[in-house]
Design brief:
Strand 4 and strand 5 form a beta hairpin. This protein has about 150 residues and is an alpha+beta fold. It has one domain: 2-Layer Sandwich (Alpha-Beta Plaits). The protein has a five-stranded antiparallel β-sheet with strand order 2-3-1-4-5. The protein is about 30% helix and about 30% strand. It is built from four helices and five strands, in the order H-E-H-E-E-H-H-E-E.
């Protein structure tokens, strides 16, 4: 027996795509990608990052140029590094919503920012997250420890 289509509820995604924006009085959704930079407040040795607010502001500028704006959210994270116990630290997530082609055009500036932030703040790696309807991709950009002039 076929299903009774009169009593079936529409899927939420169908409502969002077809009706929710209009119901809200919003402009049509134009961005399907969310790009996030993770700004750690501690370096790889557990020391506070100097001028972390300036780095957050710089990340907001980079992402605003891609998506037209950026949002920062304070969170708490943990990582293992070389230790067996997690190292807990405050982290700021800076994200934007952008069209896929805008993100593709900006890959070099995203990488440049991530490498500059990572090297200047002694990070072991810098995390970038891309989320869209096809899935989520978490990228970890490793950074070699800079050797001091007298290191072997």
């Amino acid at each position: 027996m076929p299903p009774d289509t009169k009593n079936e509820r529409p899927r939420f995604v169908d409502i969002v795509e077809d009706e929710l924006g209009a119901r809200l009085g919003a402009r049509p959704a134009i961005y399907s990608e969310k790009l996030t930079l993770f700004i750690a407040h501690l370096d790889r040795d557990g020391s506070p990052v100097a001028d972390v607010d300036a780095w957050i502001t710089s990340a907001e500028v980079v992402l605003s140029k891609i998506g037209g704006g950026a949002t920062s959210v304070a969170v708490r994270g943990a990582w293992l590094g070389d230790a067996t116990a997690p190292i807990h630290e405050p982290t700021t997530l800076v994200y934007t919503y952008a069209a896929p082609e805008k993100i593709e055009e900006a890959v070099a500036s995203i990488r440049d920012f991530a490498l500059r932030y990572g090297r200047d703040t002694n990070q072991g790696e810098v995390a970038v997250l891309l989320e869209n309807t096809d899935g989520d991709w978490f990228f970890s950009i490793p950074l070699a420890r800079e050797k001091a002039p007298n290191d072997p």
